[in-house]
From TrEMBL:
It comes from the Eukaryota. Residues 83-378 form the SAM-dependent methyltransferase Erg6/SMT-type domain. Keywords: Lipid biosynthesis, Lipid metabolism, Methyltransferase, S-adenosyl-L-methionine, Steroid biosynthesis, Steroid metabolism, Sterol biosynthesis, Sterol metabolism, Transferase. Pfam families: Methyltransf_25, Sterol_MT_C. This is sterol 24-C-methyltransferase. InterPro entries: Erg6_SMT_methyltransf (IPR050447), Methyltransf_25 (IPR041698), MeTrfase_SMT (IPR030384), SAM-dependent_MTases_sf (IPR029063), Sterol_MeTrfase_C (IPR013705). Its EC number is 2.1.1.41. The keyword Cell membrane does not apply. Belongs to the class I-like SAM-binding methyltransferase superfamily. Erg6/SMT family. Transmembrane segments: none annotated. The lineage of its organism: Eukaryota, Fungi, Dikarya, Ascomycota, Saccharomycotina. One of its GO terms (biological process) is methylation.
Length: 382
């Protein structure tokens, strides 16, 4: 399991960016930024939606051999773009506008836990009022909005997906945070920001989409000011994971396919990649490796006992096993009736695989979505 895979091309060229922007406009249709869930799903252009679905599924076609893996690594930019074109509405419908897991505690509501998880990262990094901060892989801006409010910093969200950027701007405006937030379309493997631009950088469950971790970490190192801190919740396979074990590999592949990840790396690879690009590790901890009564993957289980507030019932119904079966049946019916794009039900099946893989990976402690690293670019860095 190595991160130094042979040369993986940087795909974020201006031509590709322009093509993706035009496609995104055609796909998501009019008023795309303000529509969510089912209405956003049905608002899409069916033909363009089919292209996105095929683009995503073509890269995750059930194969786990080295050639299939290399293809995914080489296509990371376009295939991730297609993945998020297809799943963003499902994510918002099931999860809200912060696309990440959290630790959960008794008596604490889902949204409260999500915000706490974001505050924790911001406080570990030590983000201060007025700082210029970069959010790498910002989704539709849920964490950026929360961290901007919590710290008073100015946050730039970097994202490869045009649709998500459009939505992030919509929410920034809706919540009067336009002065503190901006969103930039770009590939985190090839950032266009000048060197030493940011006082701090964070990434929440996003850099796992990098084909090579050194690629994204070295870009973050470059755009950070000397002495600046990078904090990340990284998705990694833990020390318990054995790539030669068939069951482990199956679980890992379910996570890869259902979450649009070219290749999952181990915690050792991530740690070494941070050091290789020049970072000094100041703190690291797997937040999932705890005795918490409520596991991080609880919203994907069917366990009602974990639900902590009446308000969370609606989230839980949508994300739990039964809720997911209802969504799958609904999407299959829409596809059968010709209302939803062909292949839509294969996407919900892939998301189902992801949920099963994430729960199994969590229960067996093979996987964590919250390996926290807090690392610094040395003050005397050139
Ligand atoms: C699981 S989502 C997390 C989003 C956000 N951090 C949050 O917690 O809500 C991963 C994000 O990484 C972005 N992403 C994936 N590959 C990227 C790339 N090569 N460059 C920039 N962003 C990328 C996706 O578009 C998506 O927004």
């Amino acid at each position: 399991m190595s991160s130094t895979v042979s040369e993986v091309p940087f795909a974020g060229t201006p031509e590709l960016k322009a093509k993706q922007a035009a496609f995104s406009k055609a796909l998501h249709g009019k008023d795309a930024d303000s529509k969510v869930g089912v209405s956003a799903f049905l608002n899409k252009d069916k033909k363009a939606h089919e292209v996105s679905i095929n683009d995503f599924l073509e890269n995750w076609d059930g194969k786990t051999d080295k050639d299939a893996e290399q293809k995914r690594l080489e296509n990371y930019n376009q295939s991730t773009h297609s993945y998020y074109n297809v799943v963003t509405d499902f994510y918002e419908y099931g999860w809200g506008t912060s696309f990440h897991f959290s630790t959960y505690y008794k008596g604490e509501a889902f949204n409260q836990a999500t915000a706490r998880h974001e505050h924790y990262l911001a406080s570990k990094i030590g983000i201060k009022e007025g700082w210029k901060v970069l959010d790498v892989g910002c989704g539709v801006g849920g964490p950026a909005r929360e961290i901007a409010r919590f710290t008073g910093a100015h946050i730039t969200g970097l994202n490869n997906n045009d649709y998500q950027i459009q939505k992030a701007y919509h929410y920034a405006k809706k919540f009067n945070l336009e002065k503190q937030l901006e969103f930039v379309k770009g590939d985190f493997m090839k950032m266009d920001f000048p060197e030493a631009t940011f006082d701090a950088v964070y990434a929440i469950e996003a850099t796992v989409h990098a084909p090579v971790l050194e690629g994204v970490y070295s870009q973050i190192y470059k755009v950070l000011k000397p002495g600046g801190v990078f904090g990340v919740y990284e998705w990694v396979m833990t020390d318990n994971y054995d790539e030669t074990n068939e069951e482990h590999r199956r679980i890992c592949y379910e996570i890869e396919i259902g979450d649009g990840i070219p290749k999952m790396y181990s915690v050792d690879v991530a740690r070494q990649a941070l050091k290789n690009v020049g970072f000094e590790i100041e703190y690291e901890r797997d937040l999932a490796d705890s005795d918490d009564e409520i596991p991080w993957y609880y919203p994907l289980t069917g366990e009602w006992k974990y639900v902590q507030s009446l308000y969370d019932l609606s989230t839980f119904v949508r994300t739990s096993y039964v809720g997911r079966q209802i969504t799958t049946a609904f999407v299959s019916t829409l596809e059968f009736l010709g209302i939803a794009a062909k292949g839509s039900s294969r996407v919900t099946a892939a998301l189902e695989d992801a949920a099963v893989g994430l729960v199994a990976g969590g229960e067996k402690k093979l996987f964590t979505p919250m390996q926290l690293f807090v690392v610094r670019k040395p003050l005397n860095a050139e």
